[in-house]
Specification:
The protein is an alpha+beta fold. About 30% of the residues lie in helices and about 25% in strands. A nine-stranded mixed barrel has the order 1-2-3-4-5-6-7-8-10.
Length: about 270
C-alpha cells in the first residue's frame, strides 16, 4: 500500500511538471504570436515605402503628388477691399458653411477652377514633369495642365488674362521659385468664394524635403482685392508610389447630374443627398 501511494505521488508530481511546462510553452508561444501580429504589418509597411532618408535630387520635383495642408491659402484671409467684399458677398458656394441652393461657383458650369484653387485641391493628385525650358503640372482635377516656363521673365505688361495665369520659374539654391501674373478674374481662390482681380500675382516656393515630400509656401499679392499680401500656411506635397493619374474630365452632363443629386440637396436645409 505504501508502495502504491508513493508511486501515485510520484506520478502526480510528474504530471504536474508536464502540465506546467505545457502551459508555459503555450503562454510564451502566445506572446510570440501576439508580437508577430503586432510588428509584422509595421515591417511590411516599412518595406512597402521608400525610406525618407534615401538619396534624392533636391532639384528634381517630378512625380505624382498630393497637396496636404488645406484647400485654402490659410485659415485667416487678409481684410478685403470694398471691391473684393462686394464680390465675396455675391458669391454663392454650393458646398461649405456658406452653401446655398443654386450656387454660382464658376466650376459648377465646368469653367476652369483657376489658380491656386486647382493646386490646393488635395483630394486629387497632380503630376510634375520637368523638361528643358519648362515644368509642367498635370492636374487630375478637371484633367488639365499648367506650364511654368524656366529661363524666362514675367511679361512687363499684363498679358491677356488666363485662367491659370502666366508663370515663370527659377532655382534659388534648392528652392524652386515660381512667379505668376495675368490671371482671369472670373475664377475663385477657393470653394468659399474668395475673389481675386486680374492684378493678382502669386509667388510659390517649392523645396524638396525628402524622397516623398516637398514643402510649399505661397504668397498672393492683389492690392485691388486685399489690403495686404495673403501668405499661405505651409503645404506639404506627399508622394505615394501607389497613386495613379485618372481622367477626371468635367462633362456638363455629369455636372448637371451631380448638381441635382448631390450638391443641391446638400445645400438645401432639411434635405439629404
Amino acid at each position: 500500500m505504501n508502495t502504491e501511494m508513493a508511486c501515485a505521488a510520484k506520478c502526480n508530481t510528474h504530471r504536474w511538471i508536464l502540465m506546467t511546462v505545457a502551459i508555459g510553452m503555450l503562454f510564451w508561444s502566445g506572446r510570440s504570436f501576439a508580437r508577430g501580429t503586432q510588428t509584422e504589418p509595421a515591417a511590411r509597411q516599412q518595406d512597402a515605402s521608400p525610406q525618407q532618408n534615401a538619396a534624392f535630387d533636391p532639384h528634381d520635383l517630378s512625380g505624382i503628388w498630393r497637396v496636404e495642408g488645406g484647400e485654402i491659402l490659410s485659415k485667416q484671409a487678409p481684410r478685403m477691399t470694398p471691391w473684393a467684399q462686394a464680390r465675396y458677398d455675391a458669391a454663392k458656394p454650393g458646398i461649405g458653411p456658406r452653401a446655398q441652393p443654386q450656387g454660382n461657383d464658376p466650376i459648377s458650369g465646368c469653367n476652369p477652377p483657376g489658380f491656386p484653387r486647382i493646386l490646393l485641391f488635395g483630394a486629387y493628385p497632380l503630376e510634375i514633369i520637368q523638361l528643358p525650358g519648362r515644368v509642367l503640372q498635370f492636374f487630375d482635377f478637371f484633367y488639365t495642365y499648367r506650364t511654368i516656363w524656366t529661363g524666362r521673365q514675367l511679361l512687363p505688361n499684363n498679358p491677356d488674362p488666363r485662367w491659370y495665369g502666366y508663370s515663370v520659374g527659377r532655382w534659388e539654391g534648392n528652392t524652386f521659385v515660381v512667379d505668376s501674373s495675368g490671371f482671369d478674374d472670373r475664377s475663385w481662390l477657393d470653394e468659399d468664394g474668395h475673389p481675386h482681380s486680374s492684378e493678382m500675382r502669386i509667388e510659390e516656393r517649392y523645396q524638396r524635403m525628402g524622397l516623398n515630400a516637398i514643402r510649399l509656401t505661397m504668397t498672393l499679392t492683389d492690392p485691388k482685392a486685399y489690403t495686404q499680401p495673403w501668405v499661405s500656411d505651409v503645404k506639404i506635397l506627399k508622394r505615394d508610389a501607389q497613386d495613379k493619374m485618372r481622367e477626371d474630365l468635367c462633362a456638363p452632363a455629369d455636372e448637371e447630374r451631380y448638381k441635382d443629386e448631390m450638391k443641391e440637396p446638400a445645400a438645401t436645409p432639411g434635405q439629404q443627398p
